[in-house]
Amino acid sequence: MKTKGLELAKIQFLALDVQYRTLLDKLKTSQVNHNQVGGMDVVSLLSELVSFETVNDPVKGMKPSKDCPKFIKDTLDSWGIESEIIEKDGYYAVYGEIGDGSPKVLFMAHFDVVPVNPEEWKTDPFKLTIEGDRAYGRGSADDKGNVASLMLALRDLVNEKLDGKVIFAFTGDEEIGGNMAMHIAEKLRDEGKLPTYMVNADGIGMKPIIRRRKGFSVEIRVKPEKTKAKGIVRERKFYVKTPVVETRHAAYFLPGVDTHPMIALSQFVRNFNVLAISLEGKFLKGNVVPSEVTLRYLDLGEGQEVEVDLGLTRLLRSIVPLVRAPIKPEKYSDYGVSITPNVYSFEGHHVIKLDIRAMSNSKEEIERTIQEIVEFNVPEAEVDIRTNEKAGYLFTDPQDRIVRVTIDILRELGEDAEPMEGPGASDSRYFTPYGVKAIDIGPKGGNIHGPNEYVEINSLKKMPMLYKRLAMEL
Fold first, then answer.
1. DSSP letter at 121?
2. Does the pLDDT value for residue 269 go beyond 70?
3. pLDDT reported for residue 13
4. d(CA 396, CA 387)
5. Contact 178, 427 (CB under 8 A)
6. What are the DSSP calls for 96-114, one per residue?
7. Which of 47, 131, 154, 429 is most buried when burial is the number of CB atoms within 10 A of its CB?
8. Can you identify the CATH homologous superfamily of domain 42-212+393-473?
């Protein structure tokens, strides 16, 4: 009898042990997949978002259709989150609010992406491809990984008791200036709904970005000036080189480390006895460094008589002094002032567009400095400088509550985080002039605006929890 009793007890113990281990496995699975909803985790949601070709390229007349914002809205609707699609000037945004009371925090991310040069990609840029811990695809890091993460955070937040209102927006024109974000900022101001804090889910590296420079676009136009000269016609290609950080984003370009093909070309023209005939290159947009440019030129001396362009020659020679313009910023920046010549086109005039980043709001200071250089090097050229006067730069005190809370949560998630400066501009610049305390943040990844853009999956999986916790704490 004792033996049977011991065997029965042993069987019961083993059964309880199996139940316990099964429960533990379920708990672990729940923790690992805490981002899953209806079979959709953050990676599969990102995969859906990447499949929408939401390229913004005004030069080619490309802009995101309504399909991606409709997918975002429909998905949120299925989770019981009310939202609306806002349209302005042919661009879309998804806007909504959760909770009651005064607005405490705004979450924002963008679903539009920069153009791609498919021949530079090793995978289909609009099909999320996973290799190890990396998920490749246009927008995976900038900024659809953040869109997916924020959507899943909202799914959890809608069931929480919030002490205040959470506002959210997904915009479709950040890559061409962010007028939709500006519209939302003005809308919230007019309605008395400006939040205390803004978490702009448009960063990288899982560190709170507390400083970002303002962007300025400079267009320099010069008429062709054709003449004949003798020599040998040659052709030379110049390539981008980024040996440390692989990217094409102009704001990440670091003189002394990286090689810009247009700056290298300018130095070549300045130092050799050559005259420009024509220029071609893989130009994408104002804040994307071209991967290569090709100069057709005349090497002066004995040879055939060829038509050259003195206007283009002077314009190309002016690039080196232009990118070294002594612009004085208003505040400190890790990156100082960056000036990159990323676009050339011929529209009856030779046109070069410069991307300028500076911790400054002074268009007049930049205009004065650029004009002085142009007048000395290309006196016949026309200069047009543009910036959004309603946008500022991001400059948040590292001791501010939103920064400290973010760092605490990141450390709890196993990330060794400190506040940092981000190279490029972002939509938070439309809210900081109204006194909104803001940070930018996002998962780890690389090749922003470049070929083979990727996000690190382990990092991405932490982002929904980070955004949820931030909303609860703030």
1. -
2. yes
3. 41
4. 21
5. yes
6. EEESSSSEEEEEEEE--B-
7. 429
8. Zn peptidases (3.40.630.10)
- The reported pLDDT for the residue numbered 273 is 86
Q: What phi and psi, each to the nearest 5 degrees, are found at residue 111? A: -105, -5
Report the interhelical angle of 144-157 vs 67-78 (nearest 10°): 20
Residue range 85-99, pLDDT digits in tens: 999 999 999 999 999
Q: Which two tokens stand for residue 196?
A: 């205390």
Q: Which residues make Cβ contacts (< 8 Å) with residue 263, sequence separation at least 6?
A: 319, 320, 323, 340, 341
Helix (H, G, I), strand (E, B) or coil at 188: helix
pLDDT, mean of residues 255-263? 96
Peptide bond into 400 cis (omega under 30): no
Is pLDDT at 25 greater than 50 in this prediction? no
* Rounded-to-integer distance, Cα 185 and Cα 195, Å: 10
Please state, in angstroms and rounded to a whole number, the distance separating the CA atoms of residues 452 and 138.
Answer: 8
- The pLDDT score that the predictor gives to residue 99 is 94
User: pLDDT digit string (tens) for 167-202?
Assistant: 999 999 999 989 999 999 999 999 999 999 999 999
Distance CA 187, CA 262 (A): 41
**Cα–Cα dist 56/139, whole Å:** 12
